[in-house]
Amino acid sequence: MQNQAFIIAIDGPAASGKGTLARNLARHYGFNHLDTGLTYRAVAKALIDKGLPLDDEAIAAGIAQELDLKGLDRTLLSAHNIGEAASKVAVMPQVRHALVEAQRKFAQNLPGTVLDGRDIGTVVCPDAPVKLYITASAEVRAERRFNEMRANNVNADYNAVLDDLRRRDERDMKRSASPLKPAHDAHLIDTSKMDIEAAFLEAKKLIDAALRN
Ligand code: DC
Question: Which of 20, 79, 185, 192 is 20 to 30 A away from residue 152, measured at CA?
Fold first, then answer.
């Protein structure tokens, strides 16, 4: 259908490779891309910058309602402490409600969209024709994150990075509001032993099949 956006929903834990995959797919298909993690990070950063508490749901939800998706800056939002704070505001139902509404609106951009996050296939776009759940072992994800930090001259300790990822997984998977889990009809792609190109080709195969239907 020409008048309806084709939505690719991508979920998975931190450092699974879903962000890179989402960007590559969006470029390949000429679709719009939204990293929904940035929306939670932006709310957290605004609270920190304004000296506001991270545990007041009404204040955080007010900021989420005002968020402009066009102003999201990956470089500014990538700091470690912002990721930590984001996973705290992400447990708040009112914050999620406001951000999910904005994400759903974005998903309707023609000709299609790629959204990546934790609850895209389960909550944000449950009718998406393609749902991918990207995963990898905690050890492999920690190694990727560790190498990335070293490449950026950031001091890092592998065991601390691994502990941190496990804590983040626990918080994302065990929260009661929209926990991280694969949608029942998601295709699982384990990238533990795959490089970026192999993951892309696997995803492309699934998407091309859905586009033909
Ligand atoms: O993917 P990320 O590290 O940028 O995400 C930051 C936090 O936001 C993460 O701890 C989980 C949360 N998040 C979420 O709850 N739902 C999403 N759709 C995306 C991110």
Answer: 192
